[in-house]
Design a protein that fits this description.
The complex is a heterodimer of chains A (426) and B (64).
Chain A lengths: L1 E8 L2 E4 L4 E3 L2 E4 L1 H8 L5 E9 L5 E10 L2 E5 L18 E7 L1 E6 L8 E4 L3 H5 L6 E9 L5 H21 L8 E6 L3 H7 L5 E9 L7 E3 L2 E2 L6 E3 L9 E3 L11 H5 L2 H9 L5 E10 L3 H17 L4 E5 L6 H14 L3 E8 L20 E6 L3 E4 L4 E4 L21 E4 L19
Parallel strand pairs in A: 1-8, 2-4, 6-23, 9-11, 13-18, 13-19, 19-20, 20-21
Antiparallel strand pairs in A: 1-12, 3-4, 5-11, 6-9, 6-10, 7-8, 14-15, 14-17, 16-18, 22-24
Helix pairs in contact in A: 7-8
Chain B lengths: L1 E3 L2 H7 L3 E4 L14 H19 L7 E2 L2
Parallel strand pairs in B: 1-2, 2-3
Classes of the chains: A alpha/beta (426), B alpha/beta (64).
Chain lengths: 426, 64
C-alpha cells in the first residue's frame, strides 16, 4: 500500500469573514465552524479561540487534539467509519495541515482531562505548545449524560478538523512524503536478508470513557488484527478517551504516530516493516488473555523477528503490556516495549504494576508523578474550575499566587508512550 | 489472599491464594446480569474465597 502525504505548513491562524488557506495562513470563519459544531443538537453552544506558541495562555480541560487532513486521491475519506463512510484507507494521496491543531476543551467528566500551556515550564513538556491551536470549548445541552457529551464533543472536533482539511483540497503541498509497505510475499522477496519487524500498538479500551475507535468500532470489541501502517495517516484510529492526559494518545498522535513514522524511516534499510498490529487493553482478565494470546499468535504466523510494543495509559494496562511481551518473546520474537512510569513523586516506587524478565528492552516516556510548578498565565481558555480535580492534581494544587503545583500527569502528551513527547535523557 | 481481576499482578506481587474476580471496574459483581443472577455470582466468589482460605497450599495457587 502506498500513500503520498502532502504537508501544507500553516504559519498563522486568523479569524476572518471567509474560511480559506492563503500563503500559509489559515483564515477561519467563526460563523462557519460554529455551524459545523452546532449540527449536533446535543451541543448548546461553542466558543472558538486561537492559542499560539509563546503566548501566556493555558488551555484546560483539554479533551482531544486533532490535525486537519483531507483525502485528495484514493479510497475512502478522513476518519473512516466515523466521519467518512467506511472504506479501507491508507493509499492514494492525503494532505495534512502541519503546525496547527484543533483542540477540543470543556468539562466532560471533570477529571483525567489535560492542560496545555503555551509558554513557561509546562510548555516544555506538552508537544501541543508548539502548534498553533484552534480551540473549541463546547457546552452541552442541559441534562445530557456524560458519555453522550463526550461523544458529541469528539465528533464535533472531527467535523471541524475535516472542514478545515477540506480548505486544502486544491492546494499544492509544501512537501510530500511517500510511505509504502509491501504485501507479505513481496516483502520476503524484496528484503530476504532484513529482519522482519512489526509494530504492536495497544489501544486504550478500558471503557467508562477510556476508549479508542478503529474505523468507528469500539476497540474493546475488537480482537487483535493487522493493518497497513499507512491506514492511521487517514484517521483509521481515533481517540475517545479521558485517560490521564500525559499518556493518552490524542487523535493527533494516532495520525502522526512516531513509532510508525520512524519505522518507515528504517523500512527497507535496517529492517522490513511488515505491518501494524493493533490490540486492546480491556478490563476483563479473559479479554486480556485472549488479546495477548492473539498478538503472540499473529507475530508467530507472520514469521516476525522482532516487534515494538507501545502501551497507552497505565495501571492495569501494564499487565496487558507484560502479557504481550512475555507471550511474544515466548514465540521467539524479540520485543522492545514503550511505556511510561508512575514511580512516585520521588521516583523511588515501582514504575509499573507488573513486570517480567522477558521485558529486558524498555523505553520509557518518563515519570508521570514528577512534580512541576506551573506559573499563573494571563489567559485561560476553558475553565480552571476542575484544575484541582484532574488526575495529577490535588486540593493543594492551586497556590496563593495563582500558580499550580501538579504532577506531569496533567500535561497533555507529557509522557506519551509512542514517543510523541519532549522528555529525553542524556 | 487476593480476590483480584488481574491475577497475573497477584502472581507478580507474590499472593499465595488467588481467586479470579470479574472485571476491574466491578470485581465482585457484574452489572450486565439481573439482580438474582448477580447475587448468586457474588455469593459464589465469596464462598470460593472462604474455601481458598481454608485450603492448604504449596506455593502460589489460583483457584479457578
Amino acid at each position: 500500500m502506498k500513500l503520498e502525504m502532502g504537508h501544507i505548513y500553516i504559519k498563522d491562524i486568523q479569524f476572518a469573514a471567509e474560511s480559506k488557506i492563503e500563503d500559509g495562513i489559515l483564515y477561519v470563519s467563526e460563523e462557519a465552524v460554529k455551524a459545523v459544531v452546532l449540527e449536533d443538537e446535543k451541543i448548546k453552544s461553542v466558543s472558538f479561540d486561537i492559542a499560539k506558541p509563546g503566548e501566556s495562555v493555558r488551555i484546560t480541560p483539554v479533551k482531544d487534539v486533532i490535525e486537519p487532513r483531507v483525502k485528495v486521491e484514493g479510497r475512502g475519506g478522513i476518519f473512516p467509519g466515523v466521519i467518512a463512510k467506511v472504506d479501507t484507507v491508507g493509499e492514494g494521496k492525503t494532505y495534512a495541515l502541519k503546525g496547527m491543531a484543533v483542540v477540543t476543551a470543556g468539562k466532560i467528566v471533570g477529571f483525567q482531562e489535560g492542560i496545555i500551556d503555551m509558554t513557561g515550564p509546562g510548555a516544555d513538556y506538552t508537544p501541543f505548545s508548539k502548534t498553533l491551536n484552534l480551540v473549541m470549548v463546547c457546552e452541552p445541552v442541559d441534562g445530557i449524560k456524560q458519555h453522550d457529551y463526550e461523544k458529541a464533543v469528539r465528533f464535533a472536533g472531527f467535523r471541524v478538523a475535516v472542514y478545515l482539511g477540506e480548505l486544502a483540497r486544491e492546494l499544492t503541498p509544501d512537501e510530500t512524503k511517500v510511505y509504502e509497505t509491501c504485501t507479505i510475499k513481496e516483502g520476503m522477496e524484496k528484503y530476504p536478508n532484513l529482519p522482519r519487524v512489526a509494530y504492536v500498538q495497544m489501544l486504550q479500551s478500558q471503557g467508562l470513557l477510556h476508549d479508542t475507535y478503529v474505523y468507528g468500532v469500539d476497540a474493546k470489541k475488537i480482537v487483535p488484527t493487522i493493518m497497513s501502517p499507512t491506514e492511521i495517516m487517514d484517521g483509521a484510529i481515533v481517540s475517545g478517551n479521558c485517560v490521564s492526559a500525559c499518556d493518552k494518545n490524542p487523535t493527533y498522535v494516532h495520525l502522526n504516530n512516531p513509532v510508525v513514522h520512524d519505522m518507515f524511516e528504517q523500512h527497507g534499510k535496517t529492517f522490513n516493516f511488515v505491518c501494524h498490529i493493533i490490540t486492546n487493553e480491556n478490563v476483563y482478565l479473559a479479554d486480556k488473555q485472549r488479546s495477548s494470546d492473539w498478538t503472540a499468535k499473529i507475530c508467530k504466523m507472520l514469521d516476525l523477528d522482532g516487534v515494538i510494543v507501545s502501551q497507552e495509559g497505565f495501571g492495569n494496562p501494564d499487565t496487558d503490556l507484560i502479557m504481550n511481551c512475555k507471550k511474544i518473546e515466548a514465540e521467539g520474537v524479540k520485543t522492545v516495549i514503550i511505556t511510561d512510569e508512575y514511580a512516585g513523586r520521588d521516583g523511588k516506587s515501582q514504575s509499573l504494576a507488573d513486570s517480567d524478565p522477558a521485558a529486558d528492552a524498555v523505553v520509557t516516556g518518563g515519570n508521570a508523578n514528577q512534580v512541576i510548578i506551573l506559573p499563573k498565565l494571563d489567559k485561560v481558555i476553558g475553565t480552571l474550575d476542575y484544575v484541582t480535580k484532574i488526575a495529577g492534581a490535588s486540593e493543594e494544587t492551586l497556590r496563593e499566587d495563582g500558580s499550580l503545583e501538579v504532577e506531569l500527569q496533567v500535561l497533555t502528551g507529557a509522557t506519551n508512550e509512542t514517543g510523541f513527547n519532549k522528555l529525553s535523557a542524556r | 489472599m487476593h480476590v483480584c481481576t488481574v491475577t497475573p499482578i497477584s502472581m507478580t506481587v507474590g499472593a499465595n491464594r488467588i481467586v479470579p474476580a470479574i472485571a476491574i471496574p466491578h470485581p465482585l459483581g457484574n452489572p450486565a446480569l439481573d439482580k438474582d443472577e448477580e447475587k448468586k455470582l457474588r455469593r459464589d466468589i465469596v464462598e470460593k474465597a472462604l474455601e481458598a482460605l481454608a485450603t492448604e497450599v504449596d506455593g502460589q495457587t489460583i483457584f479457578d
